[in-house]
Design goal:
Oligomer: single chain
Largest sheet: 3 strands, antiparallel
Strand order of the largest sheet: 1-3-2
Radius of gyration: 11 Å
Strand content: 15-25%
Length: 67
Amino acid sequence: MIEIYSAVNILEAELIKSLLKENEIDCLLLNKNITTLYGTSIPFGGIKIMVNEEDKEEADSLISSIP
């Protein structure tokens, strides 16, 4: 899996995860559990959104379509 996006907070990460899932793209959120320490926003690195390499282009396109 490769990182395609780094979300600033858990809400953004979950929104993107939902969008990818609706389009049948498997993804993994890394650093998600760190929000229990810092609240909804993470002061460093963000929540990394990982997808399979073969889904990268489609995932990038979907994420860039978010206003």
